[in-house]
Amino acid sequence: MYAVNYHRAASVADAAKLVKSGDAKLLSGGMTLIPAMKTRLAAPSDLVDLSRISDLQGIKVSGKTVTIGAATTHYDVASDEKLRKACPALAHLASLIGDPAVRHKGTIGGSIANNDPAADYPAALLALGATIVTNKREISADKFFKGLFETALKDGEIITAVTFTAPAKAAYEKFRNPASRYAIVGVFVTKGKDGVSAAVTGAGEDGVFRSKEIEVALAKNFTAAALDGVKVPAKGLMSDIHASSDYRANLITVMARRAVAAANA
What is the mean pLDDT of the chain? Predict the structure, then answer.
């Protein structure tokens, strides 16, 4: 490691001021930033720790409206009883992230700010039509995720919460890497008053995306059988040491079928 100035922010306003100093980076769970610093892929002059800001923590459920503080850990998302009743699919998704150490430290805000192409939360927020709330504005999920490790966040902008309306039905299924447990392909499906949605993570060359082929089929009939024969094009999907684009294309329909079956169970 190397010399770095550490700041424990007392509030969001405090963090916003501190992050303007030098080449400062925001620190939440540190699941991505700390390893990057250890390997010298990142070398910030300052770290601004958000983890002790109480206003960024916790889950609120009011009717069908769910609000999750950005510094809420994956463990808390997975175990919160109110959320498990309102949107069990999101709680289930959080329970699949990493291992216990990662789930107790990593946060929902840190995950979506990093926007790893194999992360789980982006698929959920995109399919749920969520809104990402920052210290400066509100951004719809379909405009927030811009590409690999890229978001609509501007310099000094801090995610404070995510909010969404719980759908009538939802589920998430992923084919995970056995070592990292990142999604090789993950599909989050929803059915609500605004129709159906199917968002895919782990597969797209440009990160998370919605599958039109899956959505068209499910709009007609929200059952696993409706996806029989549906093919997702391999063009635009990733090929790497874990899976080819053709393999991922097939996995998308397999995971979507499983997710719909779970949503209807």
Answer: 96
User: Which CATH architecture fits 5-49?
Assistant: 2-Layer Sandwich (3.30)
pTM exceeds 0.90 for this model: yes
CATH code for residues 169-264: 3.30.390.50
Q: Is beta strand 46-49 parallel, antiparallel or unpaired with respect to 5-8?
A: parallel
pLDDT band for position 1 (50/70/90)?
low
CA distance 88 to 125: 14
pLDDT band at 234 (very low <50, low <70, confident <90, very high): very high
Average pLDDT over residues 163-186: 96
Exposed, middle or buried by CB within 10 Å (0-12, 13-18, 19+), for 100?
exposed
Q: Which of 198, 68, 56 is nearest to 129 (CA)?
A: 198
- Sign of the Cα torsion 256, 259, 264, 265 reads positive
Do residues 134 and 160 touch, judged by C-beta distance below 8 A?
Answer: yes
User: pLDDT tens-digit profile of 23-67?
Assistant: 999 999 998 899 889 998 889 999 999 999 999 999 999 999 999
Phi/psi-derived region of residue 31, left when phi > 0, alpha when psi is between -120 and 50, beta in every other case: alpha
Q: What is the CATH number of domain 57-165?
A: 3.30.465.10
